[in-house]
Amino acid sequence: MSTTTGTPRGVLFQWAGILPLTERTPRLTLGEGDTPLVRSAALEGLCGLDELWFKLESCNPTGSFKDRGMVVAVAKAVEAGAKAIMCASTGNTSASAAAYAARCGIECFVLVPGGKVAAGKMAQAVAFGSRILEVEGNFDQALNAARELTEKHPVALVNSVNPHRIAGQKTAAFEICEALGDAPDVLAIPVGNAGNITAYWKGFCECTELGRASGHPRMMGFQAAGAAPIVHGAPIEQPQTVATAIRIGNPASWQGATAARDESGGLIAAVTDEEILEAYELLARREGLFVEPASAAGVAGLLRLGREGRTRGGRAVAILTGNGLKDPDTAAAQYSPDITRAKATVEGVERALGW
Ligand code: AN7
């Protein structure tokens, strides 16, 4: 795919200089990356911040942040001769893997926890023609199986334990520094398997080294209270949360997350499902941003810190990791829709509205 003028869109084209590409790496793109950074209209003050910006990773081609890293992981797998890829997923990784596999004409196997993946994400895995294995167990067990299976069979693992995923994902930190002219003071981000926070931290560190930023943000990661192993300091056997994307009890990049927290002077805290849904609703009703529940966790964390008077102003960026359309069932459960039936005429609508 190419645009009519200039460099084609996509992470491999825009960020070739900071990625592990060779001449033999296929220049794969679905137009991922280069996502909007939008200033908050309403929540900034509630969070006790001077500036709050939202990075709309929901604008990526499959509707989540995963595409940035997946495009690199799949391109490198194809370069290495892979004919098939595999991942375990709470839904977004599988949607992304399935899309890029379809694009490359290779096979994609996805292992998902039965009954715990949002409807939109399942629809994507189906649409892109992936081979779907609904496993009896949670994400952590599915990832263990995927790791062993990909060692045993000629299939490339494209979970974020694959370093190419992290390499591609770090490009979002570069985009933020470019858009703001420097790193923000705070980065707020949901934490599940912890690949994303690990990648952002790597990206911000590289931005400082390369003189693209004068310092780095304090990394603030937020887990769901029922799935907060890093906060508790021990794996959770049976993670539970409305935010199914981050329903993860033993994150693969645990060390990366704690390093980001400790080296940046940040924190990793838990937010309750209630707080997540409050932020989910505020983002929709006050900002016009429809995200999936997991994506609201970072904003829920900032709202909590704001209420507690712990944000101390400054400029924060919250990563909105996935689109609200991914999870229509949570939207249906959260809102009592205000829908009135009417005849399709001026009089009919006026009567229905009481005008
Ligand atoms: C919307 O798709 O783990 O901490 O298998 O879908 O890097 O795992 C998804 C995670 C945040 C957490 N927001 O990111 C998967 C999966 C959304 C997500 C996260 C996920 P990581």
Structure keywords:
single chain; 355 residues; alpha/beta; 6-stranded mixed β-sheet; 4-stranded parallel β-sheet; 15 helices; 10 strands; binds ligand AN7
Low-confidence blocks of residues: none
Structural class by sheet pairing and helices = alpha/beta
Q: What is the β-strand count?
A: 10
Strands of the biggest beta sheet: in what spatial order?
1-2-10-7-8-9
Radius of gyration: 20 Å
Number of helices, counting only DSSP H or I runs of 4 residues or more: 15
Looking at the structure, what is the overall shape? globular
Overall pLDDT: 97
Largest sheet, if any? 6 strands, mixed
H/E series, N to C?
Answer: HEHEHEHEHEHEHHEHEHHEHHEHH
**End-to-end C-alpha gap:** 51 Å
- Approximate helicity band: 40-55%
Enumerate the distinct ligands.
ligand AN7
What fraction of residues sit in β-strands?
A: 5-15%
List the helices and strands and how they pair.
Blueprint: H1 11-14, E1 37-39, H2 43-46, E2 51-56, H3 66-79, E3 84-88, H4 92-104, E4 107-113, H5 119-127, E5 131-135, H6 139-152, E6 156-157, H7 163-169, H8 171-180, E7 186-190, H9 195-209, E8 218-224, H10 229-232, H11 254-264, E9 267-271, H12 273-287, H13 293-307, E10 315-320, H14 328-334, H15 346-353
Parallel strand pairs: 2-10, 3-4, 3-6, 4-5, 7-8, 7-10, 8-9
Antiparallel strand pairs: 1-2
The structure holds ligand AN7.
